[in-house]
Write a structure and sequence with these properties.
This protein has 193 residues and is mostly helical. Helices cover 65% and strands 7% of the residues. It contains six helices and two strands, in the order αααββααα. α2 runs antiparallel to α3, α2 packs parallel to α4 and α3 packs parallel to α5. Keywords: Membrane, Transmembrane, Transmembrane helix.
């Protein structure tokens, strides 16, 4: 797991120049881009409209959990690899110890990236925004005393938060401390202003 094999995929696209953005703004994997957002947004929409459409809590809960599970699998196994060239997984060795593996696509022979900037923006925007929405739903369910919905919302936070954590670890490197990386990034943004 050397950091030399990690491709620089823009997390927030703040460091890209305008000319490179215009050249690589085409979406190369439209089906992957669609499903990256479809399952995430569908789970949120079903959560918001569930009580209006049906009175069955179990049907709503199962539908939301299935959408969240499909989203977790699709993002972890397909869209992350295709859209930004990152993937992660956990493997257990013969001794029973768990090892997290983080990979990034190597830079191509021409020295350019193989993922487009538009796909990168779609990927990171969906990956960051949706867990934040589920956290807002968690506070809403907690403060409105809807305890039965809190379990569903916690599943949303956990499944989408796990993908967010895994892909941020892929992006910044598995050996780096995420707290120091976030502090350095925020410090740079503060100094720019």
């Amino acid at each position: 797991d050397s950091n030399d094999d990690i491709e620089d995929v823009s997390l927030f696209d703040a460091d890209d120049d305008i000319s490179r953005r215009s050249k690589k703004s085409k979406i190369r994997h439209p089906v992957a881009s669609f499903f990256h957002l479809f399952f995430r947004v569908s789970a949120i929409v079903v959560y918001l409209l569930c009580e209006l459409l049906t009175s069955s809590f179990i049907a709503c809960m199962v539908t939301i959990i299935l959408l969240l599970s499909c989203d977790f699998w699709a993002v972890k196994n397909v869209t992350g690899r295709l859209m930004v060239g990152l993937r992660w997984w956990n493997q257990v060795d013969d001794d029973g110890r768990s090892h997290w593996v983080f990979e990034a696509r190597k830079v191509s022979a021409q020295g350019g990236k193989t993922s487009s900037e538009a796909e990168s923006r779609i990927f990171w925007l969906g990956l960051i925004t949706c867990p934040m929405i589920w956290v807002i739903f968690a506070f809403s369910a907690l403060f409105s005393f809807k305890v039965k919905w809190l379990a569903v919302v916690v599943m949303g936070v956990v499944l989408q938060g796990a993908n967010l954590y895994g892909y941020i670890r892929c992006k910044v490197g598995s050996r780096k401390n995420l707290t120091s990386m976030a502090t350095n990034y925020l410090g740079k943004q503060f100094l720019r202003q």
